[in-house]
Write a structure and sequence with these properties.
11 strands, 3-stranded antiparallel sheet, alpha+beta, 38% helix, 2 domains
């Protein structure tokens, strides 16, 4: 799924890197080659018809036709994989966050600049573990949290790899033009139905935010630093409308302990705490049973935990009779 999705995304990027259109305009009896870089442009003249401009026009038509053909082929291959995925009843994402994540991926922002945090990340953990959570653990929510990770250890490309002009708000507008910044909470965007997209940032990440970003991320969460630790998870799942949903999510060990910590945070809404605890405990159980090599709960990991998280881990380990080992994967003999 990830291989076919990535090929499709690359085909879209290749097509969109070309001018939106190139055509001839007749003025005063002469033809002029005109280019629109984007659909809304007025068009800019590239010079009168000549062997040079004709060659440029022919090359553009050839490149565009080739790019469109590749996109059609990758879409067909991807759809075949989506049908197989659905047939195997694998984890599904909800439509609205999936649409946002696809566009973030196309724009080169997902995983390089933004990380999925909260319940929407849990489908990736199910794929990583090859197992499913119990009913209610990863149910749909009315909000969608993203964390700024540019410059962190989970950043997956250099800053100059990001397309010029891309921003979270621009992506949201592509997905749904009704998205606007909540004037009372400028870290939050709302669509016409009240669906919330929130941008969070660890204190260490504020210096890396781009100047053109209209969001003002919530600057209160020191605990967001925890979600930048370890090794991020990346998987591509399918949404309920049978489209792909790429997910970059924090290291599941740190996410699990973060959820347990939230369940005891005094400022946390009381209605959210029980689900936080269930999610944290279920994720730790899944890591212990299904990810002991890729995400070991060993002594090295435990010693790296801050005190407040180590206390939560010790309580969970004690209740499950779990003793952290010294080696990442244990003996395979």
């Amino acid at each position: 799924m990830a291989q076919r999705h990535d090929a499709w995304v690359n085909a879209i990027r290749n097509l969109e890197s070309l001018p939106a259109s190139m055509y001839w305009v007749t003025k005063d009896g002469r033809d002029y080659l005109t280019v629109k870089q984007e659909p809304g442009d007025q068009g800019k003249s590239q010079g009168a018809r000549s062997s040079k401009t004709e060659e440029r026009y022919a090359a553009y038509q050839q490149d565009r036709s080739a790019a469109q053909a590749v996109l059609a082929d990758t879409e067909l291959a991807l759809f075949d994989t989506i049908r197989s995925y659905r047939g195997h009843r694998l984890p599904m994402a909800t439509n609205r966050p999936a649409g946002i994540l696809r566009e973030l991926d196309i724009q080169g922002l997902l995983g390089t600049d933004l990380l999925v945090v909260g319940t929407n990340a849990f489908a990736a953990y199910e794929i990583e573990a090859g197992a499913r959570f119990a009913a209610g653990i990863a149910d749909e929510t009315d909000d969608f949290d993203l964390s700024w990770c540019r410059g962190s250890r989970v950043s997956l490309s250099k800053a100059n790899d990001r397309p010029i002009g891309s921003s979270l708000m621009r992506v949201l507008k592509v997905v749904d033009s009704s998205f606007t910044i909540n004037k009372g909470k400028r870290y939050q965007a709302l669509d016409r139905t009240g669906y919330e997209v929130e941008l969070l940032a660890a204190p260490s990440m504020f210096r890396t935010l781009p100047e053109n970003e209209v969001f003002e991320p919530l600057p209160v969460f020191q605990e967001q630093e925890w979600l930048l630790q370890g090794r991020a998870v990346r998987h591509v799942v399918v949404s309920r409308d049978l489209k792909t949903c790429p997910i970059y999510a924090p290291d599941p060990r740190w996410m699990a302990l973060h959820k347990l910590w939230l369940s005891e945070k005094p400022e946390r809404k009381s209605t959210k705490r029980p689900k936080d605890r269930k999610q944290g405990e279920a994720l730790l159980d899944l890591i212990k049973d299904r990810m002991p090599i890729s995400y070991p709960l060993n002594i090295d990991f435990v010693l790296d935990l801050p005190e407040e998280l180590r206390t939560l881990f010790d309580a969970w380990a004690s209740s499950h009779g779990f003793v952290p080992g010294k080696e990442d994967g244990g003996s395979l003999r």
